[in-house]
Amino acid sequence: MAGLSKGIQPSARRTAATARESAMSIEKRGTNEVSENLGGPALRTFFGIADAWHLSEAEQMKLLAISRRPTLHRWRVGKAARLGRDRLERISYVLGIFKAINILLPDPARASAWMRAANSADVFGGGTALERMSRGNVADLYVVRQYLDAQLS
Asked: What are the residue ranges spanned by the domains of the chain?
């Protein structure tokens, strides 16, 4: 990703501020309270990113590790019970990936296109970042996040 601009868009700064506030909340509260209080904001953030990346419902379901479309629809309109730790972790990685790619590629169209572009880096094996992220394992989200964080340094 050499030669990429490192300017930060205002939306990326807002997203980073939200992530910092969420992290501070997690440190101050117990796990159950965090799940109840962060589920709504986490899902709103996720769906905003899903819209920015033009994710299909199937792609959203893979990233959230849900198997039922009605669950996705309920969550999108804000009718979520509390989210488990796994789903909060998934959303956290998606948020970090979104933040990093928007720092590296501040043009939203380029950032979105990168998610779907074939990539020759070893971690992608010629596939796309979205394909790697959609394999179903939290570890795959982590690998993409780690790759982008390395590009930032």
From this structure: 10-22+30-152
